[in-house]
Amino acid sequence: MAIKAVSKERIDKAMLEFDRKYRSRREWQGWENNLAHRYAIHAGGELYPAKKIVSLATGIAVGEFSGGRPTNSYLEKRGFTIVELPRGEGDPVLQFTPGAIYDRKTEINGPFGGSLQSGIAKSATYPAIFLFTGDSGEQYGYADGWDKGAYLYTGEGQRGPMTLIRGNRSIANHAEYGLALHLFKSLGKGKGNEYMGEFSCADMFERTQPDVNGQDRTAIVFRLVPVGIPSEIIEAEDQDEDEADLSGSLAAARLAALAACKPSSDDLGQSAPRKIYQRSRKVAHYVLMRAEGECESCEKPAPFMKKDGTPYLEPHHVNRLSDGGLDHPRYVGAVCPSCHREIHSGVHGTLMNERLKQRLEVIER
Question: What is the pTM of this model?
Fold first, then answer.
């Protein structure tokens, strides 16, 4: 059944009715933790069950209209903020330990989705791409390995020249799409997959190497850099040049940040870790300018001014449990230290992060 159109004011009254008549009832105690409720309206510091509120506002029973996207869209068009409630403790958490060994079927693609055969498997439920490498790939024309601080990862395509489609394109554009790259090393049949960590794609290049039939072909190779690389390994000789490259204009800073996030095969003489470092600096520079001294989470002024006269805010990556990686203006917010700590450690951190993510989507649309 289509949802009957009502005004924003009528929905506001429905939320007041919920506060007055339903919130204290036993059946609604702890409803936020009930897996039957996936989305909520966030208003005035409180959460409201989306379908119940629409039901109260329209007089339509909750079982007679669809929840999820239709209900969320209905409410968002009327100016309400919709958040996804945290998943229950029984749901899988996408968190891997470097060096640990995981079974692909039961611990990687099984719980989180994605192809069980492909070397590049996009998760069906999380903003992540699972990459698989290993010695056995050489028989299929792949040759991966470390080189000057970057992991050279061969794209997909067993025969003929590789092209930038499907999985190859998703790696190249992972920052723009907000998808984390999780790399695993296959240890052999039945031996599992060792987690190598989360990576960012610095750039890509082409080289000639044999395909599965032993025929030379053009292969696409991505230079992947571990997320959270220590700053000591980044060359420091061009710091003055880096500072000069940071624009004082908001529009120019945004263009520079977006350009830095685009995959390319330019300047392969520059180390991949340094490319990621420069991208991070340009994105952070723009994001802090964009905030104009206000936390993009709580919308309060920065807590203090730095010695250089600029307001103190911290970059936060909304698609990560920790910071680093996914350096794209759409997924990085400028937040005050208090909000930053609460997002990472607070009981309502997931909801705060979801609200910030939605705000950034609007800002960078």
Answer: 0.68
